Every structure is written in structure tokens, then in C-alpha cells.
Amino acid sequence: MDDYILLKYVHIISSTLLFGTGLGTAFHGWMANRSGNLSAAAVVNRNVVWADWIFTTPAVIAQPVTGVWLAHITGYPMDSGWLLAAILLYLLVGACWLPVVWLQIRMRRMAEAALAADTDLPPLYHRYAAWWFALGWPAFIGVLAIFYLMIAKPEL
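The chain above was modelled as a monomer; its predicted structure follows.
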């Protein structure tokens, strides 16, 4: 396998992990929060945090490295409009993801503490969950837009 194919393979797999893990954890987190089941919320929040460390974080690192390397190998100038738009969207997605990680960790701690103390989730948990959900939308739409830009490479 030549370098280009290997690099493109890693880029596609990491984008798949980034998108799929994000969508999967968002769905399970949202459903657990809607269920009102404290045990479910504690388990799902724990798993969401783990999934981000195991799958999302390596993909977040691999994407710009492999993307820039692919642009270099294929001769696309870094100032191509579609590539600059993709990079800006990637930064927007990251700006949404970083606070989401912080929120997830705090939500996990609150859910585990409430479960251990046999109490309800505090109101702060629900505010964090609302922000977590809201920040997911621009990130999700941003990733979809990046996919389009990578495939179509429109003149911008």
C-alpha cells in the first residue's frame, strides 16, 4: 500500500470515528437524560466520557495531521477556498467539542454522586445537559459541511 492510500485510509477512518462516535454518544446521552433514570444517566455519562477519550480524541488529532499531509501530497494549496473553509469549520467543531468534554465530565460526576447519595440530579446537571445538547448541533452540522467540502472541493 503506498503512502497516499494509507494516509487517505487513516483520514477516512478517523473522520468516521469522529462523526460516528459523536453521533452515537449524543444519541445515547440524550436518551439517557430524557429517560429520567439516574442509573442510566450515570452509566451512559461514564461511557460517553470514555468514548471521547478512546475514539474521539485520537480522531481529533489524526484529522488535521492527515488532512494537511494529504493536501501536501496531492498538491492542493493550503489557501484553496474549500480547504480553508473546511479548516475553519474544523476549528468551529473543536470550539464546540472542548466545552462539551468539560460538560460531560461534570455531568458524569454529578450523576455518579447523585446515584451514590440516592438523590435527584441537581438543576445544574440539567443546565449542563441542555448546553451539551445545544453545542452538539453546530458541531454535527459543521462535520457534515466538512464532508461535503472534502468530497466536492467546490471553488470558493
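The chain has four helices and no strands.
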